[in-house]
Design goal:
The complex is a heterodimer of chains A (about 240) and B (about 350). Chain A is α/β, with parallel strands linked by helices and about 240 residues long. Chain A has 10 helices and 10 strands. Chain A is globular. In chain B, about 70% of the residues lie in helices and about 0% in strands. Chain B is globular, with a radius of gyration of 20 Å. The chains are: A alpha/beta (about 240), B mainly alpha (about 350).
């Protein structure tokens, strides 16, 4: 479905990715794990084709979605036309809009009627009942966990088929984190394809079907979650012995 | 989204009151109860409301720092003045009137809108650089745009250059001659009401929420499928177009324009009104435009000292109430009882 091929990416003069390749098939959960600065977020931003100043410039390689290169696609079209959604690191919700406004904003480019929007809204509220309770509150007043729910809900509102999650566990209490992953797993069973970037390798490998390990801008290991969990070098570097 | 029904009280109170107030003012002008000075202050209030609320789109809702509003006002003022003089008045430069001056009454809004459209296109001068430039750097571009417009006008001899352009007085006289009503006041009111209505509709729409999203986080807006470049163009063109409408009205109220009226000083006045009222508050912009106009007039006896007192007030405002009079809120949020009379999204 989504394939990244020999991707080289630069920020100014610094090359951040030196030939990253991986694939994501429909219905899969794939994780990219690795330490700080490995290039995980850069990879996601490259897929989303984000504009400056976040823009990583692709110097070599290709990103293909259903076989076609998406390097020339504008970011808002990546969301709308290709149906790839991003839950960014640090959530980046709109604090001075209400929860409901945040969610409806994601239907921004959709031309369909408000009944369909209402239906999607209902679905998100079903997944995250907390958001329903707080739908009229300003998003700033939500707790960290609720904000993460809102960020995921917002991505779902854009009717994406693939969701890219950037550090969904960051700043969440363990219980909330497990809740979040359980909901995501449920969404995956309903057909959502998930690419998740995590520093918390243990949780990520428990959650994903397959994984890639990144280090300083390159993929250093890949395999199913079980294989990676058993890999001695991955164990040593990322799973604490 | 809960669907609340609108009661007739909510639906009609504000429009009826507004219409009555404006009609009363027009009657006052018509019957001579208000002298010309009071009339002109009221008209400047209207023009200032258009200026501050339109600048609020960019500076408040979108969170940019544009300080060249007077430049777009100048474009609107000159384009509509030249059009109206060319069409409806005998002039030394443009020759005899193209159309009968009696048509001026009916075609005047078209002339003003043409000025607005021209100003909207001038707004592209700022909108296109804004794709990749934000904050202080964009502010510098807007100042440059203001100077480009002003200097261009100063150097075109055919429209009077630095001496200015006149003849709009003959057009307003022609309107009076065909139907004796306080026409300029009516047009200013129409322009003001239309502007506030349009901006209110715009910012409470999902489209408009896209602009608020850009203000908060451009990247997050993009991943919400907001075409940020397109929204920036829309916001800048709407803002500068409405400034052009204000400029056209301004020129016809005065009957004379010169480039000196559209310096960075005028742009600063617009910004003062926006920040005084509160960023991202339409009600605040209207309120502060009214207050600011009154303040300027009240301080007129101080003459040149006025421009010491007003900036000083601004310093105090920023010290003690940096969010402006209304902050980010609208009137019904400050006075919930008003909701009974007016439905606000």
């Amino acid at each position: 479905m989504l394939s990244v091929e020999n991707l080289h990416v630069r920020y100014g003069n610094i090359e951040a990715l030196h030939g990253v390749s991986f694939t994501l098939e429909r219905g899969e959960i794939v994780t990219l794990i690795g330490a700080n600065g490995a290039g995980k977020t850069t990879t996601l931003h490259s897929i989303m084709r984000l504009p400056p100043p976040e823009a990583p410039r692709v110097t070599q390689g290709d990103i293909r979605f259903e076989g076609a290169s998406i390097l020339g696609v504008e970011p808002h079209d990546v969301v709308r036309r290709l149906g790839i959604g991003l839950v960014p690191e640090g959530r980046r919700i709109f604090g001075n809009l209400t929860v409901q406004e945040n969610l409806t904003l994601a239907t921004y480019a959709r031309k369909d009627d408000s009944a369909a929007v209402q239906q999607d809204l209902g679905r998100v509220f079903e997944l995250f009942p907390r958001l329903k309770e707080r739908q009229r509150q300003l998003a700033d007043s939500l707790s960290g966990g609720e904000q993460q729910m809102l960020a995921v809900g917002r991505a779902l509102m854009s009717r994406c088929e693939v969701i890219l999650l950037d550090e969904p566990s960051m700043g969440l209490a363990p219980l909330l984190m497990f809740d979040m992953f359980r909901t995501l797993k449920h969404l995956n069973e309903e057909g959502l394809t998930i690419l998740v970037v995590e520093q918390n390798a243990k949780v990520a490998l428990d959650f994903a079907h397959r994984g890639y390990v990144m280090d300083t801008g390159a993929i250093v290991a890949e395999g199913t979650s079980a294989e990676l969990r058993a890999d001695p070098s991955v164990k040593k570097a990322y799973l604490g012995g | 989204m809960t669907t609340t029904t609108t009661t007739p009280l909510q639906k009609f109170t504000v429009p009826v009151l507004l219409l009555a107030a404006l009609a009363a003012l027009c009657f006052g002008a018509q019957s001579g109860m208000m002298n010309l000075y009071v009339q002109s202050v009221i008209m400047f209030m209207g023009i200032n409301i258009i200026l501050s609320s339109s600048l609020n789109i960019v500076n408040g809702y979108m969170g940019e720092f544009a300080c060249g509003h007077a430049g777009f006002m100048a474009v609107g003022a000159y384009v509509s003045s030249i059009l109206s003089v060319w069409l409806f008045a005998d002039d030394a430069v443009f020759g005899t009137a193209v159309l009968s001056p009696s048509l001026a009454v009916w075609l005047f809004p078209v002339v003003i809108l043409a000025g607005g459209v021209a100003a909207a296109f001038a707004g592209l001068l700022v909108a296109v650089p804004s794709f990749k430039t934000r904050g202080d750097y964009l502010a510098i571009i807007t100042i440059a745009a203001n100077y480009i417009v002003k200097s261009t006008i100063e150097n075109v001899g055919a429209i009077g250059g630095a001496r200015g352009f006149m003849g709009m007085g003959r057009v307003t006289k022609a309107m009076d001659a065909s139907l004796p009503l306080p026409w300029m006041m009516i047009w200013v009111f129409a322009g003001t009401v239309m502007t506030v209505w349009l901006i209110n509709r715009f910012v409470s729409s999902t489209q408009g929420k896209g602009i608020i999203a850009i203000c908060q986080d451009e990247i997050a807006a993009e991943i919400m499928s907001v075409n940020t470049n397109k929204m920036k163009i829309v916001a800048f063109m709407l803002s500068s177009g409405l400034a052009g409408v204000a400029g056209g009205l301004f020129a016809h109220v005065l009957g004379y324009v010169n480039p000196g009226s559209f310096t960075i000083m005028k742009s600063t006045e617009c910004m003062v009104m926006v920040y005084l009222g509160g960023m991202g508050s339409l009600g605040g912009s209207v309120l502060s435009a009214v207050l600011f106009t009154l303040l300027l007039e009240a301080l007129r006896p101080l003459q040149i000292i006025k421009w010491v007192v007003i900036p000083l007030m601004l310093v105090l405002l920023m010290q003690f109430r940096p969010e402006g009079i209304m902050g980010n809120r609208e009137l019904p949020q400050l006075f919930p009882k008003l909701k009974k009379f007016y439905k606000f999204k």
